[in-house]
């Protein structure tokens, strides 16, 4: 149980939600497989594969959104519809009109849906009700929005806000690279992306390459800004910080993972040990990231997350 990405949001500290109440409200929207005519289906699943929708280890909670979608490429629908349209045209002596073709494609879609393959996925979200964190293990805000939208539909009250910091990640990362120095507790690794703010959007990517010296500083001087930067925290966690304040390629290093090696008696015990260790490490990392970005904007100044997708325009940078 190790998250790979973090899409970060803020809940009020000491969030007024008990685990029993959360379990009860999520149960209203449990996952059901796609029916024969359903293109997709979403709902809450047990993170551990049992009947419990909110898995708790200590005061840390884990929930999981299940999603299933039919694999029915539009090219397949078009091919079958075109073949059917030719047969109809031969029978009636003239080609189908645009509206008739559209109706035929919809009919073909309904015919093929029951035979389509399905793909199922599970998206995890970590809730820290004590410190007010909600983190979704998703590679993009759009994928995390699936979880947020289902939470809005399931919960009576969902006081969620975007995480906002005094410094934007772009300006902070630029300062770190220009000074060849990361903030306290962090080290700069060897992956980085710099992108021009001009219309051409020229980009330079460094992979396993030293970021010290004049080369990177030259790109900064030319107006390129860092959009991704690989960092390591306390020699325990490596990750990539993005311009949108996302944490990607999260990797708990051996010094962390070795703490539970051989200590778990079964799969559930291992799951719980990894989750406890992961959340403990993240409880140290996240405040450190916020501090490195100048601290968190006061709650009264931060904007809530409203219904709809969270996009780059929502961010303060």
Automatic annotation (TrEMBL):
NCBIfam families: PRK00321.1-4, PRK00321.1-5. GO terms for biological process: DNA recombination; regulation of DNA recombination. It comes from Azoarcus indigens. Its main location: cytoplasm. It is found in: Cytoplasm, Nucleoid. InterPro entries: RdgC. GO terms for molecular function: double-stranded DNA binding. The keyword Cytoplasm applies. GO terms for cellular component: bacterial nucleoid; cytoplasm. HAMAP family: RdgC. Belongs to the RdgC family. May be involved in recombination. PANTHER family: RECOMBINATION-ASSOCIATED PROTEIN RDGC. This is Recombination-associated protein RdgC. Keywords: Cytoplasm, DNA recombination.
């Amino acid at each position: 149980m190790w998250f790979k990405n973090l899409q970060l949001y803020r809940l009020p500290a000491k969030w007024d939600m008990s685990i029993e109440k959360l379990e009860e409200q999520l149960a209203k929207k449990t996952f059901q497989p796609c029916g024969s005519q359903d293109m997709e289906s979403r709902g809450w699943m047990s993170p551990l594969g049992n009947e419990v929708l909110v898995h708790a280890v200590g005061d840390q909670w884990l929930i999981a959104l299940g999603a299933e979608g039919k694999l029915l490429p539009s090219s397949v629908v078009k091919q079958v519809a075109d073949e059917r349209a030719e047969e109809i045209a031969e029978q009636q002596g003239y080609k189908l009109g645009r509206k008739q073709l559209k109706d035929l494609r919809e009919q073909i879609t309904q015919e093929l849906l029951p035979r389509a393959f399905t793909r199922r996925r599970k998206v995890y979200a970590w809730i820290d009700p004590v410190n007010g964190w909600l983190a979704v293990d998703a590679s993009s805000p759009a994928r995390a929005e699936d979880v947020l939208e289902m939470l809005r539909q399931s919960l009576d009250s969902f006081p969620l806000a975007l995480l906002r910091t005094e410094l934007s990640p772009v300006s902070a990362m630029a300062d770190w690279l220009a000074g060849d120095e990361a903030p306290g507790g962090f080290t700069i690794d060897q992956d980085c992306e710099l992108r021009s703010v001009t219309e051409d959007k020229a980009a330079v990517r460094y992979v396993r390459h030293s970021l010290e010296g004049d080369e990177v500083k030259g790109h900064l001087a030319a107006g390129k800004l860092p959009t991704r930067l690989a960092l390591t925290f306390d020699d325990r966690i490596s990750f990539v910080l993005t311009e949108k304040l996302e944490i990607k390629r999260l990797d708990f290093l051996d010094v962390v993972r070795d703490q539970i090696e051989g200590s778990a008696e079964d799969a559930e015990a291992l799951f719980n040990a990894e989750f406890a260790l992961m959340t403990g490490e993240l409880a140290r990392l996240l405040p450190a990231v916020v501090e490195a970005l100048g601290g968190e904007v006061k709650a009264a100044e931060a904007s809530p997350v409203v219904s709809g997708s969270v996009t780059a325009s929502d961010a303060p940078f």
